[in-house]
Amino acid sequence: MRDLALHQITMTQGGPIGLVRFAAKASLKKVCLFTATPLDAHDKPMFAIVEPSDKTEFQSLLADNDVSIINAEYFPIMPETDVTGYAAALELAAELGAKRAVTHIHEVDPTRIADQLSALCKMARDLGMEVGLEFTGFAKGCDSLEKAVNLHRTINQPNLKIAIDALHLFRTGGTLEQLKTVDPQSIGYAQICDGPHFRKSDDYIEEAMNRMIPGEGMFPLRAMIDLLGEHVDLDIEVPHYASGSFFDAENWALEAIAASKELLE
Predict the structure, then answer these.
(1) In CATH, what number is assigned to the domain containing residue 215?
(2) Angle at 171 between CA 202 and CA 46, to 5 degrees
């Protein structure tokens, strides 16, 4: 069976440290976590990050638990923001052994997108990392698989790879037929979750933060995974924030892991 990674927003208890310990306990060897985080509407961090002061301790934690990082988040291309400001968080991700840095494209000016994304790719390449390009309905500079493929071709950076998030694929109008036409080598990773329907939308934040366990919804996940090469990392990204303080994130994550393993079988 292919290795699976667990995304931090699927198992939120204990932040990145809790994620690594839980992944090891669940017999997973890969995680996706934050070394930089977006801010919420009140300018507060949305997610716990690995702090630079914890680097040495966290390196030991990863080694002791035989866990590695496939994706470090979150490094978006934003209007009026220079990606050089991500240098410290990118360097920390690289020092922790992260395979790639994740970006969304919120900038809409084509020239600036090209400049900033190329610069981010160069920064990551100098650190030995890929850049994962996630298209989402919320990031207007790259809000479909078609735009991601065109941007990947235009930028033409060897370490730039496209991400296929099941929710974003189907909520932005993507199809399996469209995915079949994409060069498999341009895809770096995929994110597994489920959803109740195939409604196209650019306003699905509530659903994005409260996804369904794989196999419990309508998404053709087996067929999607079958279209991806063996080199593509698979990430369990099934956040659930609707239940508030009474929600047991560990039990939820165990359900998501078990369902994802069954999907691969």
Answers:
(1) 3.20.20.150
(2) 65
